[in-house]
Design a protein that fits this description.
By secondary structure, the protein is mostly helical. The chain has one domain. The protein contains three helices and no strands. It has helices spanning about 10-40, 45-60, 60-75. Helix 1 packs antiparallel against helix 3 (about 60-75). The longest helix is centred in the middle third of the chain and has 34 residues, at about 10-40. The termini are close together.
Length: about 80
């Protein structure tokens, strides 16, 4: 059996509950992103809103990062 990095079902299964929690956080990130984007359109001079939008984008990507981390931790 060759371990090429693609077959890590145990890491995937262990990461599912955490991915679900991060999915909920990413939904919050979507809401923050939409509100921040609207505020940026209304007043583009607010740099703090731009930082908030960037952080919201990272929250949206959270489930993917969590699953990648878990699958990397468990060997084949």
């Amino acid at each position: 059996m060759c371990c090429d990095g693609d077959c890590r079902p145990l890491g995937f299964l262990l990461g599912l509950p955490f991915a679900f929690l991060s999915l909920i956080i990413s939904i919050v990130g979507v809401v923050v992103w939409i509100v921040g984007l609207l505020l940026t359109l209304i007043c583009p001079c607010c740099l703090c809103v731009t930082v908030l939008v960037e952080m919201a984008l990272e929250l949206i990507k959270a489930p993917i990062h969590v699953m990648e981390w878990f699958t990397e931790q468990i060997p084949c």
